[in-house]
Design brief:
mainly beta; 6-stranded antiparallel sheet; 3 helices; 4-stranded antiparallel sheet; homodimer; DUF1989 (chains A, B)
Chain lengths: 198, 198
């Protein structure tokens, strides 16, 4: 293994992953969502874009083998292994407005700010944060296309493994929502592991 | 009626709608998707944001009565009347990359550029175009959450009516995709009508 990074609860971290390397995102204690953004390191105007992924994949479900497409409709990473099988890529990062509008809280930690702060390490300062992929988030859609946010299906040690198809910078936040089922009402750590790839 | 604007095929137009006024988007010949963006006229850093709408509505389906929420999770407009009942708000605007990557076409008209150009009338020049609502777009989801883009259900004269809850600027593009079922393989006009509201 080349590098290991623990992401504490209510925080974000960023890592550089070179073309051909693999990144594991591990749910250490289980039931913890990881908000994820990914930039092309050579041109940070290109980034993984869920809205374009939904078009290129003709799906709102992520599965093993799926490329993670950019705003220029090119694959930057690929989901090569997934021990859970339920993730989200249509929901926003929680942000200041989420806690202010819905809970009246002015200073709650939030994924938007965690990710923006984590990206500073690589001097990536997007005017707008791209929409996240929310690994392990469990939105259950009904027949009317309404959905309910349930507790994640991930158990301790479950993970997704992503292969870099370009040199990328990835930021991940331990989703900081502790007042809803999204993380089982408790925010716990995630672990990032980078390896040389297979 | 206060104002009427015809949007020719392959083009975009923008209009100002004052708080309390209503905007009708009319599918003149039927089967024509309209890509739609909407900005708070007093602070164009706030705009209708489909990713935040999906969170606030707990749904990926739009229905009469739904507010159109902003990136600050506040309602800017409301869908007050809908004669079709099938629209999209998880798909991107077609853009240069869509036609270049998927069809090898360098110069195809596209909604991204149509909307950016239409917004110039009000000197709105976002660094990134917000995701659109795609009125009349008919994405049919299956039980695996994969979907297929079908021809719109809208017939000639079908419409949606939106009430402005703030002073807004709206831009709409006649979706310029003529090589897929999304507009029935043919791009036709849309009409905008602004009235004083009820």
């Amino acid at each position: 293994m080349k590098e290991e990074v623990l992401i504490p609860p209510y925080e974000g971290r960023s890592v550089s992953v070179k073309e051909g390397e693999e990144l594991c995102i591990i749910d250490v204690e289980g039931k913890q969502v990881g908000d994820f953004v990914c930039f092309n390191h050579r041109d940070t105007g290109e980034y993984v874009s869920p809205v374009h992924m939904r078009a290129s994949l003709s799906s709102i479900r992520l599965k093993e083998g799926d490329p993670l497409y950019s705003n220029r409709r090119r694959p930057l990473m690929q989901l090569v292994r997934d021990t859970v099988g339920r993730h989200d890529f249509f929901f926003p990062a929680c942000d200041y407005y989420r806690y202010q509008v819905d809970y009246g809280e002015e200073n709650h930690p939030n994924c938007h700010d965690n990710l923006m702060k984590a990206l500073e390490k690589y001097r990536i300062r997007p005017g707008l944060l791209p929409d996240p992929i929310n690994w392990f988030m469990n939105n259950l859609l009904d027949e009317n296309w309404d959905y309910e946010i349930r507790e994640p299906l991930s158990r301790p040690g479950d993970y997704v493994r992503l292969k870099a198809l370009e040199d990328v910078v990835v930021a991940v936040s331990t989703c900081s929502q502790d007042m809803a089922p999204v993380n089982g009402f408790k925010v716990t750590p995630l672990k990032l592991q980078i390896s040389g790839g297979s």
